[in-house]
Amino acid sequence: MVRLLIRFAVFLGTAALGLALAALLVPAFHLHWAGFFVAILVFALAQALIDWLVRKLFHRSAPTVAGIAGLLSTFVALWLATLLSDGLSFDGIAAWILATVIVWLTTAVLGWLAAKFLLRPEAGERAAKR
User: Fold this and answer.
1) Can you give the pTM of this predicted structure?
2) Each residue's pLDDT tens digit, 33-90
3) Residue 47: which region, alpha, beta or left (left: phi > 0; alpha: psi -120 to 50)?
4) CA angle 92, 95, 96 (to 5 degrees)
5) What does the DSSP 8-state code read for residue 92?
């Protein structure tokens, strides 16, 4: 249960950083601070659900489809966040594409780092791997 809460906190943190970075780098992508927290929550929930679904559906070939699935899930999560909150807006298709790539890269790299340092295998799991 603690690991699940840590994973969700990581999703929230990386979503916030990814969205903020995309807003800084993509002039046609706008964050509206009034709905920013709702957008982060919607984005993180959608991303976590899609990530779980991809892992369940493609558990054997997950590394192969991870990049494409990650980009698609980021796009869908951004789309859902724009539909369900007033925290995000886009001016054109280029902003959608650039923001998707920036948010995906940010969440992927920071999620990987968090998993490496925060979600280390427990002692019993490490012994079983040896």
Assistant:
1) 0.78
2) 878 888 888 888 887 787 778 777 776 666 667 677 778 888 988 888 888 888 888 9
3) alpha
4) 90
5) S
